[in-house]
């Protein structure tokens, strides 16, 4: 049992989906939050149903936020960056999900400069 600010918790288990070395990250989290059992592993969303459900909820929430997204530089009716007076650009499928595995991100940030 764990007493957390007057709230008694029977068991506290936290699952973390991670890329790369998981051991050091698990140790770091455990050192900062003693009494919490951390499981840090790759592909946690496919190994643990709760992580998969959280992943779906996060993606649905993200999609709801960006559905009506207006870029900050366009919010005042004039974009100094684009020079488009009164044009509001919306988030588009071309920008992708924002994940490193997405085509737009890979082409924009991880590709070699073309000569």
Brief overview, please?
The chain has 115 residues and is an alpha+beta fold. It has helices at residues 23-32, 44-47, 49-67, 103-109; strands spanning 2-4, 7-9, 13-17, 37-41. The strands form two sheets. The protein has a two-stranded antiparallel ribbon with strand order 1-2. A two-stranded parallel sheet has the order 3-4.
Q: Tags for this entry?
A:
115 residues; two-stranded antiparallel sheet; 4 helices; 14% strand; elongated
Tell me what the structure shows.
- This protein has 115 residues and is of the alpha+beta class.
- It folds into 2 domains: 1-67, no CATH class; 70-115, no CATH class.
- 35% of the residues lie in helices and 14% in strands.
- The protein is built from 4 helices and 4 strands; from the N terminus they run βββαβααα.
- The strands form 2 sheets. It has a two-stranded antiparallel sheet. A two-stranded parallel sheet has the order 3-4.
- The longest helix is centred in the middle third of the chain and has 19 residues, at 49-67.
- It is elongated, with a radius of gyration of 21 Å.
Topology (elements, then pairings):
Layout: E1 2-4, E2 7-9, E3 13-17, H1 23-32, E4 37-41, H2 44-47, H3 49-67, H4 103-109
Rg calc: 21 Å
Oligomer: single chain
Number of helices: 4
Question: What class do helices, strands and sheet pairing give?
Answer: alpha+beta
First-residue to last-residue Cα separation: 62 Å
Strand content: 5-15%
The general outline is elongated
What are the secondary-structure elements, in order, as H or E?
A: EEEHEHHH
When the domains are counted, the total is 2
Spatial order of the strands forming the largest sheet: 1-2
Unreliable sequence segments: none
What percent of residues adopt helix (DSSP H or I)? 25-40%
| Average pLDDT score | 77
For the sheet with most strands, the description reads: 2 strands, antiparallel
């Amino acid at each position: 049992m764990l007493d957390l600010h007057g709230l008694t918790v029977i068991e506290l288990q936290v699952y973390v989906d991670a890329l790369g070395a998981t051991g050091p990250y698990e140790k770091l989290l455990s050192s900062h939050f003693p009494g919490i059992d951390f499981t840090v592993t790759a592909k946690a969303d496919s190994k643990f149903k709760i992580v998969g459900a959280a992943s779906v909820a996060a993606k649905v929430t993200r999609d709801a936020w960006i559905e009506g997204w207006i870029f900050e530089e366009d919010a005042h009716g004039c974009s100094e960056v684009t020079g488009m007076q009164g044009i509001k650009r919306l988030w588009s499928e071309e920008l992708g999900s924002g994940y490193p595995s997405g085509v737009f991100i890979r082409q924009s940030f991880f590709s070699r400069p073309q000569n």
